[in-house]
Amino acid sequence: MRWITTWPHRRRSAVLLLLAFWAGGLVSARIDGLALMDVPYGRMLADGVPLPVEGTQTDIIIPDGADTGHVLGFATEGAYPPFNFVDATGALRGIEIDIIHAVCADLLVRCEIRAVAWDALLPGLARGEHEAVAASIRLPEGDTVSGPVRYTQPYLSHAIAFAARKDSNVPAAGTAAPPVGVVADTRPAAWLAAHRPDMQMRPYPSARALYAGLITGEVTLIVDDAVRLDRWLNDASGSCCRMTGGPHFDDMALGRGVGFVVAAENEALAASLDAALSRLRAAGRIDEITDRYLPFPLAPGEDS
């Protein structure tokens, strides 16, 4: 594979210069531009909740029959459950970690996953400290190249879902009376406008305010990012409520999803990752992985 032998040795000073002006926009590239709720992810962590661990966490992947002459380096944040996190034992876990394992096995390549600080992901990519980033970074619309980076096809989609109080009479999302609570100026709000223009939206400034509105009865139904809702409903603070509709998908309203990020000039690696993701998705492996962490699929191509 050409990218294995050529890319690690290239100098990227021009990329570093571009990165200094561009990297600030990465902060808003998360799912919906908002961090998930600050609660333990109880569904997966029977062995404990994620703990902040100082220093670099590393996961070495050596598939049977792998080419051991080169180590393909991935970087993740390790602090964004259920997608990537460090568990109580200090091990890297999460949907994206498992997807990386599956990709490396498909490509028969020895891989290393390192957890680094969020603001060091792209600078490290430019300096050649790792070759790909998997950190729930939203794919842009249109071109696969943006500034100094190149994006692969999505490995996960964005989804929204509805929730109501358990003691309410709201049977399903489509039969509830308005208003519907939603965080203002977000992808879920865009989905509502596109798919349920008959529903009156009641905007909230944050997810915490939105969920408080449901708890207190200010609204009888809310819509939000499906993963964030699932995390909240599995926390003690969300025991009042239940998911009533979803997940729903729509690339136009919710975006293309999240994918790997590589350096713009590393087209060959992006092509190899794309090919592996296509094979894994066709074989149902992405669904198998998300099923370990979530009660609904997030593989690209799901129906809305």
TrEMBL record:
Family: Belongs to the bacterial solute-binding protein 3 family.
Residue span, Solute-binding protein family 3/N-terminal domain: 71-297
Pfam family, one: SBP_bac_3
InterPro entries: SBP_3_CS, Solute-binding_3/MltF_N
Name this protein carries in UniProt: Transporter substrate-binding domain-containing protein
Family matches, as PANTHER family: AMINO-ACID-BINDING PROTEIN YXEM-RELATED, MEMBRANE-BOUND LYTIC MUREIN TRANSGLYCOSYLASE F
Keywords of the record: Signal
Subcellular compartments: Cell envelope
Keyword presence, Signal: yes
Major location (coarse): other
Tagged with keyword Signal: yes
GO cellular component: cell envelope
